[in-house]
Amino acid sequence: MRSRFGVAMLMGLLSGAVQASNWLQLQGNETADAQPIRTFGFLQPSYTFIDAKKASGLQGTAAVFNGQYSTLNLNWPELQQPHQFQVIRAGLGARGRLNDDINYFVALDAGQNGVNYYRDIMLTDASLTFSYIPGARIRAGLFKLPTSEEALLAVNTSYPYVYNSNAVLYMLVGLPVQANGAVNASGASSAKLSSGFSGFRDWGVQVYDTFVQEQWEYSYAAMVSNGAAIESINDTDARKDLTLRLQTSYLLGGKGPNREDLSAFVWRQNGSRLFGTEYFRMVREGVGIKYLQGDYRASAEYLRADGMVVGGQTPPFVGQAFAAGVSEKARGWYVEGGWRFMPQWEADLRYDYLDFMTQTAANEREFATTTLGLQYFIDPATRVIFNYEWRAMRVSNLSAIAAGAARSNALIIANGLGDRLSMQLTWSF
C-alpha cells in the first residue's frame, strides 16, 4: 500500500531498513550497519473542508440541536468547525542498535488528533527488540499491534490518504470508554471517553520473525498486550489481548526501496474490555491482499468486529454521550489503488464500506465513501496530498425506528453527511 518513492523516503529517514513491504520487520528491526542513535521527525499541517449545513428540522427532544453541526461533519479533536486548519501530527523520535542483538524505537506526537485528545504531547512508541533467538525476535513496549495493513503503515512516509477508511477507523483506532450508567446487554449503552485514542497501539510483548525461501517470504507475529489506554504502561486489570498475524509474500523483484511483491495476510485480535462492572468480549479480525509493481499499487482488506463495539455520539452532537454495544457486530472493507503517472505525481482511488451495529436493527448504520486522491512529491522529504471524499450514510432498518420524530431525525442526520475535501503537507526531517 505505498509507492516506491514513499518506501525510498522511509529508507532515507530510518537509515536503510530492508523489509520494504513487511511492516512488522520495518518498524521492529534494524540492519547490521545501523547507528546507535538516529533521530527523525515530521510535521503534517492539514486543511479540511466538509461541505455540510447545520442541522434543521429535528423534532422532539432533538430539536434543541437545530442550528448545530453534526459531529459527523466536524473536525476532530476540537469538534468546532466543518472547515479547519490544523497540524494533525507532529512526530519526533529516535531509533537504533544498542548492540548486535538489541535495538530500540521511541517516538512522541504533539499533533491535533485523537491520540492527543487529553494531552498536548503523547508517547506513541517506546520499544526494545531482542534478536537472540533465531526465528523468534522479541519486541517489548509500546508499538503498533500486528493488525490491519492500513493501521501498520507509517503515516509520514507511506500512507497515501489524509484520513483512514471507515472500517479501520471505527473498528481499530481504539476508543477507550466507560459506561455512564446501567449497561444494556442486548442494545446500546451510554458511554463516555476515558482516555485518548490508542492510535492502533498497545503496551505488550510480541514474538515475530520473517523467513525467506527463494522468491517466497513468510512472516508471523503473536502479541500479548494490555488492551487498555496507552497513556500508562500499567495494566488496569489482569486480562490481556492476544493478537496474531500471518503474511505470505511473493517477491517480484528488487531489494530495499525497489522491492516489488504480491502479499496476502490474515490477522486476529481477541480480548475483553471492562465496561461498567463487567468484562465483555472484544474480537477484531481481517484478511487482505496487496500488490506493488512498477508504477502501480493495489490493496484490499475485509475486517470484522464482534463483542464490544463503540459507535459515535448519540445523537451526534457536541457534548453528547457515545453509544457502545457489548454484544454487537460490525463488518467492513476497502479496496484501493494508486498509479504513479509521472515521477512526481500519483493518482489514488479508494472505496470503503462499513456496516455498523448490525445486531440492533434500530441502531444499524452503513457508511460508504469514495476517495479520489492526488499526491505531489516535492522532494524526498516533502509531499502534498489532495483528497476529495464522496461520503454517504444509510439508515439500514428504517422500519425498526419508531415512526415520527425518531425516524425523521435519523433520516435528517444521515442525509446531512457532507462530502469532505482535505489537503495535507508532510515534511520529514
TrEMBL record:
The keyword Signal applies. It comes from Ferriphaselus amnicola. Residues 1-20 form the signal peptide. Keywords: Signal. The keyword Metal-binding does not apply. Pfam families: Porin_O_P. It comes from the Bacteria. Coiled coil: none annotated. Gene3D superfamilies: Porin (2.40.160.10). This is Phosphate-selective porin O and P. InterPro entries: Porin_dom_sf, Porin_O/P.
